[in-house]
Amino acid sequence: MLTEIVGKPVPRKEGRSKVTGAARYVDDLRMPGMLYGATVRSPVARGRIRSVTFGEGVPWDEFVVVTAKDIPGENAVALILLDQPYLASEFVNHAEEPILLLAHADKQLLERARRAVHVDIEPLPAVFTLADSLARTQTIWGEDNIFKSYLVDKGNVDEVWAQADLVVEGEYSTGAQEQLYIETNGVIAVANAEEGVTVWGSMQCPYYVHKALLKLFALPPERVRVVQCETGGGFGGKEEYPSMIGGHAALLSWKAGGRPVKIIYDRAEDMVATTKRHPSLTRHRTAVSRDGRLLGMEIEFVVDGGAYATLSAVVLSRGTIHAAGPYNCPNVRIRSRAVATNVPPHGAFRGFGAPQSIFALERQMDKVAAAVGLSPAEFRRRNFIRQGETTATGQVIREPVDMAGLLDRAFELTDYQAKRERFARENAAVGAGGVKRGIGFASFMHGAGFTGSGEDYLKSIVGAEADASGRVRILAASTEIGQGTNTIFAQIASDALGLNYDLVEMAQPDTGNVPDSGPTVASRTCMIVGRLVESAALGLRQTLQGAGLLADEYTEGDWREACRQYVERYGALKSFSQYKPPPGVRWDDEKYEGDAYGAFAWAVYVAEVSVDTLTYETRVDDFVAVQEVGKVVHPILAAGQIEGGVAQAIGFTLYENVVWQDGRMVNNGMTNYVMPTSVDLPPIRVHFEEQPYEYGPAGGAKGIGELPMDGGAPAILNAIEQATGVSFTHVPLMPEALMRGLSETT
Amino acid sequence: MRAYLPDYNLRAPRSLADALDLMAREPGVWRAFAGGTDLMVLLEFGALQHKNFLSIRHLPELRGIEITPEHVTLGALTTYTHIQRDADVRREFPLLGAAGRETGGIAIQNRGTLGGNVVNASPAADSPPALLVYDAQLELVSASGARWIDYRNFHTGYKQMDMRPDELLRRIRLPRATGDLKTYYRKVGTRKAQAISKICFAAGARLASDGRIKDARLGLGSVAPTVLRCARTEDVLRDRTPDEATIKAACAMLVEEIAPIDDMRSTAQYRARVAANLLADFLVNLKK
Lengths: 746, 288
Prior knowledge:
The complex is a heterodimer of chains A (746) and B (288). Chain A has 3 domains: 15-23 and 460-578, Aldehyde Oxidoreductase, domain 4; 31-124 and 180-273, 2-Layer Sandwich (Aldehyde Oxidoreductase, domain 4), CATH 3.30.365; 280-451 and 591-745, Aldehyde Oxidoreductase, domain 4 (2-Layer Sandwich). Helices cover 30% and strands 24% of the residues of chain A. Chain A is built from 20 helices and 28 strands. In chain A, strands 3-5-1-12-9-10-11 form a 7-stranded mixed beta sheet, with helices on both faces. A 6-stranded mixed beta sheet of chain A has the order 7-15-14-13-8-28. A 4-stranded mixed beta sheet of chain A has the order 16-23-24-27, sandwiched between helices. By secondary structure, chain B is α+β, with helices and mostly antiparallel strands. Chain B folds into 3 domains: 5-55, Uridine Diphospho-n-acetylenolpyruvylglucosamine Reductase, domain 2; 60-175, Uridine Diphospho-n-acetylenolpyruvylglucosamine Reductase, domain 3 (2-Layer Sandwich), CATH 3.30.465.10; 182-286, Enolase-like, domain 1, CATH 3.30.390. Chain B is 33% helix and 24% strand. Chain B is globular and about 60 Å long. The chains are: A alpha+beta (746), B alpha+beta (288). The interface between A and B is medium-sized, with 33 and 34 residues.
């Protein structure tokens, strides 16, 4: 057997082709006779379509034009509900909603044509804010503007208010955020009645697109094929949207008799029309004893889902379950709602609701600590959840957890205590226009995999196959989107089989060739799908051993020989593995109670900031991320996930402000939507603790991808509170808002 | 690319004379295309209204940095990178060096020109506040001759300039002997690089031996329809010591003199407040 590959920083599988430019993204592909597609979108947020007219100066007879009438199947993007049309036919419910599609071989002429289509819409009153939606200034969705609501109810929170020494209330909110993957959304489709539908594209979830296309074209599964091309980032932004753009390209190709159609969004279209992080509002009411024990938490959590249901119900679910954090509290009630507004639907974005509710909680925890006269750290220490205790949903934490240990480590790495005291002292002496400093932290957890019964419902499958030369291919629909799927799967499989890393490769995610291993979301790829990769790989070995071709101990040569003989005698050597929940897991979807996640990653993040009181700009000077994520499969990729997530969280906190005007993002370019650059970012110091998870792959890996998005915002605002003495409650905290906050208190 | 490219013409004249001839024959039809760093952004968005452009980047008459005892003269095609690489310019006109360093990213600094930054007439441009502080003069040339004008009178309104449709900006001249001017430059754009200014503040002044302010010069960007030399605030400062009362009076005048707006990048309130803060910071540091 070889030495273990898991835990080593092996080269990424597709690294060479990306670095040399050999990797082919969808916009690098060109097919004979290919047309380009464009989307005509709604200029207003809500209204009734009166007419569509085609302007002068365009040879319209050369164009392929698709409207809702041309849809062969159902005009709805199949996801959770079927409320979102591919093309609006009578009503529009958000600005930039697709109304009509155009295709032409000349990209230039296509753009001219897009501008020459005039859509006349009778405007209807629209709802743009969470508050207006809740107040039902207009009913714009269903009977009450509510996509989904949950109630988590642990203990009896109604009884604690009377006995509590202190009750602390707080209200917190977060804004939208754009995913800003480097590669914008793009697809190519070939579709006709004879050959069915094939879509190639940049995406996270090939089988989501597959499912949507079945409905759109009313075709059986075998007539639809979806292939993921090399993908330049997703962050959730390519979870649901590829079903939309993929369907559009396929509709154009279908109308064009099967000529390939390519649609690539430019940055402006991608930013203005596709999904963003859900804005949120959270209200906390916390009951606490004089000695700083949490007695009860009542939390109201609302997210703005935009115009259609899309994934809001599940975003809300994750946000709801994370809203009470890693604390032991006997009485918790969380009421949550996802509401409709007339803006483009908000969607999946790294963290998926958790960064929003954790932001509120970790600001509130500092507030409660101050109210009971304890330091933020001491207050949390008295309430950290421990092994055997239960979360808000009543999930018993069975694995060892040591939040206090993570806190100690993070404080040691940052010299937190000394800095906290020093900054307090120095800030008092800072005059007008000076720079004030602060240090703050957040403690939190993030559940890996689908919520509750989600994984059981998905029943993901992974395959492994070996050819006559002994090479192993992993068959999975889990996508490499820059995070390292290819590499960690190959590591896991090669360790499982004791084979060289180079002997294992990944099949291209192609629904015509790989089983449905579920979507590439929810920090599930390593923990859930990785475990299936491991067992599918082991299945190959068992098959060879069962056939008497391989001994218990073997060399690579033995393996190759066994594969050769097996394939010669029996044909293809394949093994499949399907998800089964770990024993003892229970989840009640009605009561929203039980084991919400297979495992949690636990973390304490510390941010150090300076606030320039001349310009009200905040700079993060240092950032330490300490987390327990189970076994670390690839140290460089894992650290990269944390660094990238923290950078994205810093953007969410201090820089990235979506400016809305009548339900449309008006700063839809990278010039005016200010994401931080490398010079704006602090050193991000990443430290892992490894507590193996019994049901994780490769000796106990858990999820990691979303975790680093969760802690940055509250840690930074907690630090800013130390620097300025002002408790800010909204992110992004732009300099303009910081100025207003300082003015109100001075 | 949202523009319909066949609608656009880009011509490359053989010489400056050819360019000026064409502009004289068809006034208003042709506009200069130098680094293109602003024009290409508009083109990409499909928002570039003007259709006919003269590429002037290759014309030697518009290039080069010339130093005489009285002036440093920069060709209109001088890039931000040229400025940063020229030790004399950097030493003598540090505000210009600072502006060059903080404009765009490296690619933009290589490509974007000082002349373009002036005639693009964006109120948010980063080098014009520095040029204002240095009392820059512009040479405008046309087929019928050349004229020099003071830069501070050049911008007459939002995107309006004292420049005829047949004229090109050829050179920018900076009077020397500003070496003992104490200068201050601050670009505020939320992020540290690749930002568009919310406020751009360039200033210079001398303190006489009696502690009084001589020769205060304030050039601001992003606080009015044009970049602005704040003459009235300078008047408040003239011959006064930079004490608390002076600072207060100057800040009050500055807030009155500028005319910031709310837009997608910031608010009028923020711009006014930060402009005043920066002025105070400049004045406080003048004594140090």
